[in-house]
Amino acid sequence: MLAAESAEKAKVAHVKRIRISALGLRHFRAVALLLLIILTCFPLFAQTSSLADRLPADTVFFARWRGMNSLTAAEKTNHVMQLFDDPDFHLGRDALIKSFRDSLAKNGAKTEPATADILSILDNSAVAGFVLNPASRSKPTSDAPVPPVGFFMVYDATGKTAVVKKLRADLRANGKEVPTVMTYEFKGTTVEARTAGTDVSYTALTPKFYFLADQKSVIEDLITRFSSEAMPATSVTQLPEYHAIQKLVAPDATIEFFARVPDLSKTLSSEQLAKPSAKFAENLHLNQVHVFGGSVSFAGQAARFRGAILGDASEGSLFDIAGPSSATFATLPVVSAGPIFSISRFNLVALYRLLRAAATPELTAQQTAALGTYEAMAQGFLGMPITDALQLFTGEFGSRTTITDDGTSLQSYAISIQKPQDLLRILRAVGSSWIAAENTVGDTTFLDLSYPYTDPVTMQKRRESYYLAVTPTMLFAAPRKAAVRAAMALPSTKDAAATPSGLLASADALKLRSLLPENLSGLSAADLTQIPWDKVMAHYWQQLATAAKNATPPGNPPPDWMKSVNPEVLTRHLSFSISGWWKDSSGIYFDSYLQ
Fold this sequence. Notes:
- By secondary structure, this protein is α+β, with helices and mostly antiparallel strands.
């Protein structure tokens, strides 16, 4: 009877939305996530094969954390790990945890989790993710939609059961709302169901594992899989998608993540499949994207983040959006002066055609006729078909970020183009009300733009200025005219693009660049030593303080831990980062290094 009552309460609560955090460990996981962000500076999840091997085959996403012991060897050589171990960094970390504990006290917390307990939890491995919800394909018993996936987390509690119990007790004592708590036995394991308002969570703690889920069927399946000495007959690690991505998972990875696109026809109910969003996704051929995954490794001096999106990359797929890979970039000499730059190639025509092809089959005859009318109007306004207008941008988009004296960032752009007179005609037509001045010098036309905007702080109506320059092969854009002229002064010829310059001219940068493939569709880099971190952090803190002051009602000031971080500790250990992505017949790949 108790189990039936628990199941009924859980059913009513969880059908309203996907629940991805439990009441008891909500705050703990938030802090753990922040700590991992600081640790890795990358997407945060990691690997321990024994946990993943027991996950169900209908898992659509999981992330694995191997535990702090996996980083023991890296502490001696890896620059990111040396940053984490620096005493100056500990000051900021401890201040962050103190800020968290203080916030609990202000909200009526009866107890505060100890810093040592919070950090101790990170010693062991864990896996978290989402699994398909079989109930989502059933006919709904209420107006509330059944979530298509359920959340889960499994933590290796070996030697940590006392710490887990203590944290659970401390944090649950701080809840403002008294939950409904019921327990029942499942295969010798006590499962606790907690319902607070519309939130429901299921938890179970054994000497070996701690389980968390937002659905009863999910936690019971996990308990069954992890309680047996024998390996389950089926597992997510047996899927072809999993094996396809494993070649990109470093053997010494600390962090690993995996996601796949499920077959919607086998995942959603007939009612859900009939909705426009599901039809659009089907017409977009999302099933041609098979798997996304990768890993983060701290072996060697640089932290490495690599992975891929794999699938059917034949013509007509979503992969068409990615531009071709080559050894040079036309915009590289323009944007690589630093301290931060990024270049990517995209096929805008392919993007337009994919979206149009996905939307058109679901339109009524009247809507189809209206779409044709709009396209004809756009052609008349632009003076050419939409696809021809998009082809004026040849696909390469470069940006450079600089830091001003007050700590704000300023971005300037360089975009490769063709037929500049046609592009100018379109710019004049689209932005006629914004063009405040136009001036042509030689083969370059300068456009000064002025457009209205609302100040987010004062909420007053103002006008913002922006500046463009159109040359025979490039469109330059920046919020300051001087930035446009400075970019134009840099070389942008094919020969210059093939010669390392700016950030990539140093020996360290050339070494990291050599680790990436020669042919790329995108490249970005940052010289961390050129960034005035003290000014950046002070500006960010001031922004938060101003926003809190002007809020209605006034919000809390920025946390003190932000001022406890010594900016010099960053460049003491980290100097450069570089990343690239490329495309082949199997998908899109990416690789990054932070040193």
